What we know:
This protein is of the alpha/beta class. 39% of the residues lie in helices and 18% in strands. It contains 9 helices and 11 strands. The chain has helices spanning 26-38, 78-90, 104-113, 116-122, 139-150, 180-185, 203-212, 217-222, 228-248; strands at 14-17, 45-49, 66-67, 71-72, 75-76, 94-98, 127-134, 158-163, 170-171, 174-175, 189-195. The longest helix has 21 residues, at 228-248.
Amino acid sequence: MSTKHAKSAKHNAIHITLQGKGGVGKSFVSALLAQYLTGVDGNVVKCVDTDPVNATFTNYKALKGEHITLMNGSKIDERNFDNLMERLITEDGVFVVDNGASSFVPLSNYLIENKAFSMLQEAGREVFIHTVLVGSQSMKDTLSGFHQLALQDDIKNIVVWLNEFQGEIEVNGKSFTELKIYNDHAAKVRGIVRIARRNPDTFGKDIQVMAQHHMTFNEVLASGEFSLMAKQRMKTVQRETFEQIAAIGL
């Protein structure tokens, strides 16, 4: 399957992954997003990892990510963040910025207090906020993270990733789009990408190995460590994920 997609006008967009709950697949989502955007004609994708604890995103060597330290202890290092903001405003390219759970609150506060989203938009950068929801015990925390983001006036273009690896995202039989928390903020949601829960012995295992080794789809398909059937399953995951992203218009 070709990894090239239709042309996009958003060659200077900013994509930031924000979620206050750790261990929900933020870096995996950032990697999926970066792979899709790299396949859009005309895009120059620049990957930035700001996680102060686990710089997982930079472990995807094929994506050539850069780690930037934004935190000094529990506080934002304003000079480092100002430098990143200047890059986001002045450099051409599509940025994918992966942020860690430990810096979610201080970074979100800094972005909001300094009107960073408005600055980026005024500079002609379209800004997308990506947040991850998971099922099971962490669902309440991730829904709260989504709610906190959506409450902010400057934040729009939220892309919600439903990562079902821990279970389906539902409350009392209601899916995410049937919940009050979604309907209260639906106007700010640009789109939804569902990473479906699959057979754990086949699809699940393949995805787990891919994520653990920080591999891209292209690396999986070129690897001798994956069987022909495993590669076919990963092609299915790639196609379904990329089609959902394309439908949002990123």
